[in-house]
C-alpha cells in the first residue's frame, strides 16, 4: 500500500488539497492547513518495526536517510522523489546531558537538545529541507515557481537562503531593518538571496510577504506553510529515539510564531498513534515577557486570545505579537497538559549565561526556555526526579552581540550576575602569575 499525505484545513470544514498545490490557507474558509497522513499503510508496520527502521537509518550515508528528517520520510513527506530532496543532513543533533547544570538546579536528569548544531545554525533547517524539496519536486513536475520568499526574524531567512542556494532556486527574504543580528543578516547575503530590509517589525514583514506571494505567484516559505511543520515535527520523535524510545516527563521549548511547539506536539502524537511510544510528555512553551501573547492567553485558560505589539527583546527570533500558528499551539498545549511560562530580559540573559558556565553556549531563546525551567523548578511544578528536555533552538554563535554585551555589562536593564571578563595583564611572568593566583579562586567549582 502506498504512503499518502495531503493538506487539510484545521477548521471544521476539513477541505483537502494535494501536497504539491501552491496553497497556504484553506480556499473555502481561510483556515490554516496541516499535513495529514493516511495512517492505514503506516500501520502495516508495527511500532517496533518503525523503531528498527529509524534506528538503522540514523546518521547513515544512504541518501537521503542519514538526515534526521528523511530517515523518517514515510512519516514526513512520502510525496517527494529521492532525487528531488534538498538535504544537508539536518537533524541528528546532540542531546546534551546537562549534568552539572542539572545538579546545580536540582533536576539531575536534564538534557538540552542542541537543534542549533545544524547547517544554518537553527532548527529552521528541519522544516526548510521539506519545503524546498517540495518546491524542487513541483518544478520538476513542470509547475512555474519563479522564486521562494519568506519574512523572518533572522533564522528562517538564513535557512531558506542556504537550501535554495544549494538547490539553485532564487530566494527572496523580507527582514525587519536593524532588528536581527549581523550574523543572521550575513547568512542570506552570503547565500545570494535577494535581501529586503524593511522599516517595520516581523509582523509587518509577514503581512507584506503574504500579499506579495499571493499577488506575484511566488512560493511562500513561512511556517503557515505546513510543509515546514512536517520536518520540524521530527524533533520530538528524535528526542525519544535518543532515549531508546523512553518518553521524558517534560519538554520545554521557546515559542514565537508557535509553529515549532505545534510541530513538537504533532510528531509525538504521530509516534503514539503508530505505536512507537505509549505516553505523552508534558510540554512547556516559553515566551519572552516582552512578546507574550500566548502567555496572556494561558493566564485566561486559553478562553481568549489577543494579538499584541511585540516589544523589543533580546530574544529577537521570538519577538512576535501575532503568531500565525496560535490555534494549532493552543490545541497542542491542551492535549499535552501544557504550561506557558515567560521570562524577562534579566531572567533570560542570566539563565543563558548560567548554563554557559556548564559548557553550553546558549542563544537568547534557549535562555528563555532555561529561565522558564528555573521558575518551574522553584515553584515545584517540575520535580527533582523528573526527566526534562530543553529544546535549544539556535546556536549561540549566531548571537555574539548578546553574549559580548552581557559580559561587558552593556545590556540595558540587565545586571549580569554571571559575568566574566578578560584580565588585562602585561606580558611579564611575575605579573601573569600574580593575576592568575589573585583570580583563580573565583573559577573553582
Ligand atoms: C524561529 C525561532 C523560534 C521560534 O519558533 P516558532 O515556530 O516561531 O515559535 C525560537 N528560537 C529560534 C532561535 C528561532 O529561530
Ligand atoms: Zn477550511
Describe the fold and architecture.
The protein is α/β, with parallel strands linked by helices and 445 residues long. Helix content is 39%, strand content 13%. The chain has helices at 39-43, 47-57, 73-76, 99-105, 124-140, 155-167, 182-190, 202-216, 227-232, 234-242, 259-273, 293-299, 326-335, 345-356, 364-378, 400-407, 429-439; strands at residues 5-9, 16-18, 33-37, 95-97, 110-114, 148-151, 171-176, 194-198, 219-220, 250-254, 282-288, 339-343, 388-392. The strands form three sheets. The chain has a six-stranded mixed sheet with strand order 4-5-13-10-11-12, sandwiched between helices. The protein starts with a strand and ends in a 6-residue tail after the last helix. The mean pLDDT is 96. Zinc ion (ZN) binds next to loops.
Order of helices and strands: EEEHHHEHEHEHEHEHEHHEHEHHEHHEHH
- Treating each run of at least 4 consecutive H or I residues as one helix, how many helices? 17
Helicity range: 25-40%
Biggest pleated sheet: 6 strands, mixed
Q: Which word captures the global form?
A: globular
Q: Low-confidence parts lasting 5 or more residues at pLDDT below 50?
A: none
Query: In percent terms, what proportion of residues is strand?
Result: 5-15%
Helix/strand/pairing category = alpha/beta
Q: Taking all residues together, what is the mean pLDDT?
A: 96
Q: End-to-end distance, in Å?
A: 59 Å
Rg of Cα set:
22 Å
Total number of β-strand segments? 13
Strand order of the largest sheet: 4-5-13-10-11-12
Question: Cofactors and ligands present?
Answer: pyridoxal-5'-phosphate, zinc ion
Amino acid at each position: 500500500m502506498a504512503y499518502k499525505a495531503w493538506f487539510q484545513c484545521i477548521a471544521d470544514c476539513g477541505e483537502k488539497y494535494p501536497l504539491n498545490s501552491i496553497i497556504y490557507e484553506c480556499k473555502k474558509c481561510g483556515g490554516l492547513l496541516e499535513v495529514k497522513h493516511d495512517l492505514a499503510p503506516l500501520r502495516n508496520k508495527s511500532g517496533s518495526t518503525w523503531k528498527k527502521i529509524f534506528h538503522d537509518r540514523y546518521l547513515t550515508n544512504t541518501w537521503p536517510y542519514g538526515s534526521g528528517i528523511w530517515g523518517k520520510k514515510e512519516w514526513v513527506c512520502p510525496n517527494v522523489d529521492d532525487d528531488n530532496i534538498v538535504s544537508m543532513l539536518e537533524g541528528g543533533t546532540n542531546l546534551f546531558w546537562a549534568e552539572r547544570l542539572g545538579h546545580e538546579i536540582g533536576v539531575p536528569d536534564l538534557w538540552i537538545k542542541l537543534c542549533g548544531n545544524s547547517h544554518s545554525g537553527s532548527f529552521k533547517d528541519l522544516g526548510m529541507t521539506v519545503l524546498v524539496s517540495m518546491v524542487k519536486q513541483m518544478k520538476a513536475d513542470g509547475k512555474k515557481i519563479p522564486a521562494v520568499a519568506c519574512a523572518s526574524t533572522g533564522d528562517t531567512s538564513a535557512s531558506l537562503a542556504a537550501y535554495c542556494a544549494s538547490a539553485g532556486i532564487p530566494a527572496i527574504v523580507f527582514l525587519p531593518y536593524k532588528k536581527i543580528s549581523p550574523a543572521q543578516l550575513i547568512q542570506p547575503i552570503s547565500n545570494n538571496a535577494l535581501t529586503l530590509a524593511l522599516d517595520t517589525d516581523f509582523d509587518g514583514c509577514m503581512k507584506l510577504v503574504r500579499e506579495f506571494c499571493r499577488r506575484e505567484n511566488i512560493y511562500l516559505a513561512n511556517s503557515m506553510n505546513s510543509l515546514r511543520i512536517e520536518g520540524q515535527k521530527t524533533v520530538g520523535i528524535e528526542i525519544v529515539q535518543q532515549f531508546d524510545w523512553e518518553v521524558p516527563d517534560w519538554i520545554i521549548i521557546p515559542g514565537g510564531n508557535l509553529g515549532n511547539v505545534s510541530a513538537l506536539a504533532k510528531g509525538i502524537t504521530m509516534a503514539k498513534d503508530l505505536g512507537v511510544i505509549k505516553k505523552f510528555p508534558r510540554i512547556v512553551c516559553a515566551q519572552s515577557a516582552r512578546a507574550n501573547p500566548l502567555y496572556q492567553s494561558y493566564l485566561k485558560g486559553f478562553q481568549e486570545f489577543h494579538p499584541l505589539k511585540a516589544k523589543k527583546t533580546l530574544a529577537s527570533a521570538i519577538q512576535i505579537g501575532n503568531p500565525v500558528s496560535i490555534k494549532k499551539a493552543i490545541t497542542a498545549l491542551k492535549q499535552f497538559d501544557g504550561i506557558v511560562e515567560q521570562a524577562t530580559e534579566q531572567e533570560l540573559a542570566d539563565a543563558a549565561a548560567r548554563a554557559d558556565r556548564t559548557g553550553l553556549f546558549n542563544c537568547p531563546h534557549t535562555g528563555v526556555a532555561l529561565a522558564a525551567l528555573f521558575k518551574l523548578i522553584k515553584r515545584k511544578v517540575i520535580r527533582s526526579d523528573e526527566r526534562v528536555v530543553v529544546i535549544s533552538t539556535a546556536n549561540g554563535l549566531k548571537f555574539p552581540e548578546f553574549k559580548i554585551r552581557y559580559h561587558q555589562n552593556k545590556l540595558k536593564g540587565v545586571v549580569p550576575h554571571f559575568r566574566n571578563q578578560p584580565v588585562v595583564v602585561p606580558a611579564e611572568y611575575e605579573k601573569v602569575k600574580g593575576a592568575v593566583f589573585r583570580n583563580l579562586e573565583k573559577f573553582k567549582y
